[in-house]
Amino acid sequence: MTPPSPDLLAAALHDVDAVASERYPHWEELVRRAREANLLGTLGAQLADRRLLDAVPVAPRANLIAAQIQSEAQERAVRREVRELARALGPAGVPVVLLKGAAYLYARLPAARGRVFSDVDILVPKDRLVDVESALMQSGFITTHHHPYDQRYYRKWMHELPPMQHVKRLTILDVHHAIVPETARAHPDSALLLRDAVALPDVPGFAVLAPVDMVLHCATHLFHDEDFGHAPRDLVDFDALVRHFGRDEAFWPALLSRAEELELGRMLYYALRWASRIHRTPVPPEMLIGAARFAPAFPVRPLMDSLLGPALRPTGARASTRWARRALYVRGHWLKMPPHLLAWHLAAKAMRRKEE
Amino acid sequence: MIVGELSPGEIRNRLDGPGLRIRIGPIVTEIRSSFPAIHSAIALHYAAHRAADDGEFADFHVSVLPPSGPRRWIRPTATFRFENAPPFQPLPAEQAFPLLEWGLNWCMATQCHQYLIIHAAVLERRGRALVMPAPPGSGKSTLCAALVARGWRLLSDELALIDVASGEVVPMPRPISLKNDSIDVVGRFWTDAAMSPVVHETLKGSVVHVRPPATSVALSTTTALPGWIVLPRYRAGEAARLAALSKGSTLMQLVESAFNYSMHGRRGFNVLADFIDASACFEFSYGGDLAEAVLTFETLAGAA
């Protein structure tokens, strides 16, 4: 038996016909990687959509069905939450943009199929944050971070309010006013994102990001974050979005110029490079060349390549993946805030650990 | 091959090396651990379980290991990992085996959504399931151990897995966990129970595990039909008393005790309502006299 490839999961997601068989030798490894990457429901949905679940051996099939039941329940929970949010925020008259999973669901994108949904993320204009926060508090949301330092950290430096939780439903809501922290080096203009958002016919007052912005936000979430534990899943989102929107020829040139405008070219470069490597995402060759102008210079480029390869694959059992993710965790903080702030933040955290 | 047919050395080598694969009800779990306490506890408690063959699909991969580096000598701890990720904080090394058992409960309750899962002990008599859902402290595990001691088949002392397609209960026999005072109470009642050493000062107090009977483990693939749902309640000094409970109250109690009721949506309600309709429902208060309690259940099962 040949040893399973590191891209076993990506290969299976794009060619479920090849795995849906008693003879497929890597079911255990495939289910294991998919569970680790929170993609078991996605794999189950791909197989179910092609009516191939019955061709999967009984034992792995039970795991796929369990994951599908879970993701379907999460989908219902997100829909209920968005209905409640619309009721809570409607009277305030604030434009609300759904982000990530909830957006994929409401925009009816293939990326939502079988996906794991956890928190709901929304983007609102910064000058309406006070209205949004008070409307949410009146409808039962309270802040989750009570320490004064955490409150200051989020409100002064971050791109979102401290996460809020509903007292009865226990759901978590992240209210963003930008897609990267205030202290970060890149400054994508939220006004542009809000201006071009696409209204949702089924939810009055709510919208989703325009296709190019949705793709750029996905890339940013992937490569700007310090936690690469979610990276394999986010790369699957990116691949699904690009496959869907990329069929429109006008999408590609708009994507490059928007990346420039939002100062997110570097994030787009990484995402296109690694999605096409791991998922064989169909990216026009001239786009890969076009995005190369956003690449970092030597020696950062080969260094990042050596880290991203292991970090983007769901192989947490391997030391290379764990070490790459640790290094990227440090890089994430570096991107998030300038060194003097970072030193201050880490010192404050360390002092608090002592108090506790 | 069953685990008991492996030599202690072979069990240790597998646990310490590539992992020992054990079939527990419908699930195959690969377990790795370097703790001698886990090696001996697995040899004791899982002796009758099937050791899965090489190449057989393993659903879950778990480990209980000490920290790497010098920390393991300073304050010895044990970390449970599921698919390489630790869902909980490490515990003192002496609690390694209880940690493994709690970790396995966590895996089943958070992953096996092909079943409707209720926090309950399940036993079987004449093909029918006795389901005892209950919050901690209600004496569920004590009663469960007493009934097993008198020949009831153990399906599970923690998790009732209801197959949503058939409405039957799927067995997952594992060690019965006893806490504090019930350790001695059960020890006096079930004198030849095979128990691992008591572990003190855990989050739940002192805990001990009791080996499930080989006859129960051998019937791991035989499901049980709905029979009785009994809500036990321990009240020190009281006489055993069985009282009918309405189907509505029983449903509310089961929903409360279910781990994944809402996940199954409308179908979850239907499966649970059908299960309750097909069961006789009672409340049972008792004061710790296990002989009297067992007699009550024997009468109940005999009359059915």
Structure description:
Chain A has about 350 residues and is α/β, with parallel strands linked by helices. Chain A has one domain: Beta Polymerase, domain 2. In chain A, about 55% of the residues lie in helices and about 5% in strands. Chain A contains 17 helices and 7 strands. In chain A, strand 6 (about 200) and strand 7 form a beta hairpin. The model of chain A has no long low-confidence stretch (mean pLDDT about 90). Chain B has about 300 residues and is of the alpha+beta class. Chain B has 2 domains: about 5-110, no CATH class; about 115-305, no CATH class. In chain B, the strands form 3 sheets. In chain B, strands 7, 8, 9, 10, 11, 15, 16 and 17 form an 8-stranded mixed beta sheet that branches. A 6-stranded mixed beta sheet of chain B has the order 3-1-2-4-5-6. In chain B, strand 7 (about 115-125) and strand 8 form a beta hairpin. In chain B, helix 1 (about 10-15) crosses helix 2, helix 5 crosses helix 10 (about 290-305) and helix 8 (about 245-255) crosses helix 9. The longest helix of chain B has 16 residues, at about 95-110. The radius of gyration of chain B is 19 Å and the shape is globular. At the A-B interface, helix 3 and helix 5 of A face loops of B.
Relevant terms:
heterodimer, A: 356 residues, alpha/beta, Beta Polymerase, domain 2, seven-stranded mixed beta sheet, 17 helices, B: 304 residues, alpha+beta, 2 domains, six-stranded mixed beta sheet, 10 helices, 17 strands, 30% strand, globular
Short note summarizing the structure:
The complex is a heterodimer of chains A (356) and B (304). Chain A has helices spanning 8-14, 16-19, 27-36, 40-49, 58-89, 100-106, 129-138, 148-157, 190-195, 211-224, 231-245, 251-261, 265-278, 285-291, 300-311, 319-336, 339-355, and strands at residues 96-99, 120-123, 141-143, 164-166, 172-176, 198-199, 206-208.
